[in-house]
């Protein structure tokens, strides 16, 4: 902008400096002083199916999952991998350049007695969220479950959810996975040794588990309403918190009662028959207290293409499809999945994020597949979260170097314009980003250059020269402000090389 003869431009606390052309130069320090902390997430840019922040930047996320699958339903704050999520944990993640954690918020921990929330538990979850915020990490609030309930050797819903008389005795868990139902204690819980004899993923096909999911979806005894009320409670907790990427309604929802309606097993059918109604119910409750936070919704785990007719409340501008990639149940490559989810995005007018994929030590085929996945995520411009944080550590409580290398890639966490492409080369650690600047965005592009990957620093080359103003925000982040002289829509490319 041109300096006028009046001093009105100078009244802000931001220091205004002049460059040699006599125009107002960008002032990185001033911008950060005026806009401290993590920026709130904004809408989905429905023209390119990407997440924005409140400054209009396109945002990308690399991260991991932290989910405590048993009481007390949260990780300890004392560093003790794989059992902790405290200061040392978030510092380690920050050094790897991780900017998001999908953090399990178990309903079982939050509402141990029906209608009575455990505020102590909810406050612990919020304090972990705030700890992450202090280290530059966003949180995806995740109501997690696997096989729904303790009564089914799984976890997720509170113990009061499942009633023992829902199925006749000959159909009790885990029939037909096993011919004879398990013995249970006075609380209806099977023994640990019986549970240990099962392949949990097959347990979804048992009569009792299908029946219980069916009752959640058809709001038996207002159980769907209770689920939605829990989401309202979570939204009340987090509505003013800056570092919330979104609300992930339910992890890996099963199809429902496929014994009563076998068509639910056809990929995509359960999405619109069962899930859509519950997602709308929960989203309605969230929106009574929080109009803005993105709502992440999942389809059933083995869908090839999404079967939803509508995203929650029909508003794709605040909805993100949360999907997972494991093989099995997926049959194709992750590239096929990315292409399918982009097709879903275009139909549903939303964005999508890979919220779980394999990130643990395996044989050379698996490690090659992880490399392929993170490379393809760059190519298709997909944000991702590995499963899971605890798998990062080896027996010496150090990150496995092989896994740390996957987490500590360079990537653009924020782009002040429209991305064309980005790519991290895991061999020589070089990174290239191309985008078209949007002059209306005064916030900077931010590239995560993890100290783990660039311990001696990095070199930066920008084309056209001087189109961006460089600023080292912190040891792991390079900021690039659009120079005043750069035209709107100018294509710029940034190349990083390791020192
Ligand atoms: C609430 O959560 C806290 C923290 O885990 C726990 O100590 C307490 O026993 C819980 N209260 C109930 C009623 O479950
Ligand atoms: C949400 O937006 C609607 C429409 O603008 C408004 O009436 C309502 O008060 C808002 N609710 C909250 C919780 O901000
Ligand atoms: C564990 O990680 C450390 C640090 O990255 C590494 O030096 C060591 O070789 C690893 N040990 C194993 C058993 O992987
Ligand atoms: C990555 O860098 C290596 C070494 O410089 C180079 O041989 C390779 O072609 C690069 N890969 C890609 C995909 O650019």
Blueprint (SSEs and pairs):
Elements: E1 17-18, E2 24-25, H1 28-34, E3 41-45, E4 50-53, E5 58-59, E6 62-66, H2 87-95, E7 100-104, H3 107-110, H4 119-134, E8 138-142, H5 192-196, H6 207-217, H7 223-238, E9 244-248, H8 269-289, E10 295-297, E11 319-325, H9 334-348, E12 351-357, H10 364-379, E13 384-386, H11 401-407, E14 411-415, E15 417-424, E16 431-437, E17 445-448, E18 458-463, E19 468-474, E20 477-482, E21 491-498
Parallel strand pairs: 6-7, 6-13, 7-8, 8-9, 9-10, 10-11, 11-12
Antiparallel strand pairs: 1-2, 3-4, 5-14, 14-17, 15-16, 16-21, 17-20, 18-21, 19-20
Bound molecules: 2-acetamido-2-deoxy-beta-D-glucopyranose (4 copies).
List keywords for this structure.
11 helices; alpha/beta; globular; eight-stranded parallel β-sheet; glycosidase; 25% helix; binds 2-acetamido-2-deoxy-beta-D-glucopyranose; five-stranded antiparallel β-sheet; 21 strands; disordered N terminus; 499 residues
Give a verbal description of the structure.
The chain is of the alpha/beta class. It contains eleven helices and 21 strands. Strands 12-11-10-9-8-7-6-13 form an eight-stranded parallel sheet. The chain has a five-stranded antiparallel sheet with strand order 5-14-17-20-19, with no helix packed on it. Strands 15-16-21-18 form a four-stranded antiparallel sheet. Helix 7 (223-238) crosses helix 8 (269-289). The relative contact order is 0.12. One 2-acetamido-2-deoxy-beta-D-glucopyranose binds at residues 425, 427-428. GO terms for molecular function: hydrolase activity, hydrolyzing O-glycosyl compounds.
């Amino acid at each position: 902008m041109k300096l006028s003869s009046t001093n009105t431009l100078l009244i802000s606390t931001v220091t205004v400096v002049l460059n040699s052309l006599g125009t107002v130069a960008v002032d990185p320090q001033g911008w950060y002083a005026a806009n401290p902390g993590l920026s709130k997430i904004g809408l989905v840019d429905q023209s390119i199916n990407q997440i924005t922040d409140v400054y209009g930047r396109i945002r990308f996320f690399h991260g991991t999952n932290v989910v405590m699958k048993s009481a007390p339903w949260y990780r300890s704050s004392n560093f003790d991998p794989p059992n902790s999520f405290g200061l040392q944990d978030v510092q380690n993640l920050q050094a790897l350049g991780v900017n998001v954690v999908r953090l399990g918020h178990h309903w079982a921990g939050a509402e141990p007695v029906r209608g009575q929330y455990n505020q102590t538990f909810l406050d612990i979850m919020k304090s972990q969220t705030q700890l992450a915020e202090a280290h530059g990490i966003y949180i995806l609030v995740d109501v997690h479950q696997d096989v729904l309930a303790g009564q089914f050797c799984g976890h997720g819903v509170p113990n009061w959810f499942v009633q023992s008389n829902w199925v006749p005795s000959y159909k009790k868990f885990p029939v037909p996975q096993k011919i004879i139902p398990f013995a249970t204690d006075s609380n209806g819980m099977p023994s640990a040794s019986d549970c240990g004899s099962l392949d949990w993923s097959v347990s979804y096909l048992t009569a009792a588990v299908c029946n219980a999911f069916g009752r959640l979806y058809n709001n038996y005894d207002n159980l769907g309403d209770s689920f939605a009320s829990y989401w309202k409670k979570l939204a009340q907790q987090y509505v003013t918190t800056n570092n919330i990427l979104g609300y992930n309604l339910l992890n890996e929802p099963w199809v429902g009662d496929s014994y009563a309606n076998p068509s639910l097993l056809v990929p995509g059918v359960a999405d619109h028959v069962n899930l859509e109604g519950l997602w709308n119910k929960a989203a309605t409750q969230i929106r009574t207290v929080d109009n803005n936070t993105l709502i992440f919704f999942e389809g059933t785990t083995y869908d090839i293409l999404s079967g939803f007719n509508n995203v929650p409340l029909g508003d794709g501008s605040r909805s993100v499809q949360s999907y997972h990639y494991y093989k099995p149940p997926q049959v194709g490559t992750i590239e096929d999945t990315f292409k399918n989810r982009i097709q879903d995005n275009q139909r549903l007018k939303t964005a999508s994020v890979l919220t779980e994929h394999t990130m643990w030590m395996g044989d050379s085929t698996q490690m090659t597949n992880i490399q392929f996945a993170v490379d393809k995520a760059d190519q298709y411009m997909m944000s991702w979260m590995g499963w899971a944080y605890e798998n990062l550590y080896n027996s010496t409580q150090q990150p496995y170097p092989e896994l740390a290398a996957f987490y500590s890639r360079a990537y653009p966490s924020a782009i002040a314009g429209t991305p064309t492409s980005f790519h991290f080369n895991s061999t020589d650690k070089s990174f290239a980003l191309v985008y078209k600047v949007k002059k209306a965005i005064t916030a900077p592009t931010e590239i995560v250059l993890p100290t783990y990957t660039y311990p001696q620093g990095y070199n930066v080359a920008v084309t056209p020269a001087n189109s961006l103003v460089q600023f080292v925000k912190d040891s792991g982040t390079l900021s690039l402000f659009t120079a005043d002289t750069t035209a709107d829509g100018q294509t710029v490319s940034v190349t990083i090389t390791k020192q």
